[in-house]
What we know:
The chain is an all-alpha fold. Helices cover 85% and strands 0% of the residues.
Amino acid sequence: MWMIVGLTTVGLMVLGICAVLAYREVVLLGRALSRSAERVARAGAEVEREAEVLSRHGGGLAFTAVTPSVQGTN
């Protein structure tokens, strides 16, 4: 009888330790995900800023660039 109680107690302790370790990993994963989301948000804001600058200067460049002639010179 005591062996059953002892084995049950040990089994519950092992499950408890596994639960604590899993919780710790979930917390670490959540922090890493939060940092990654912040980095993606910063990169997206930087892309938006650069796209705005490019759109201002890109229109002028499109009409002033020299384009090669397909027919060549006569």
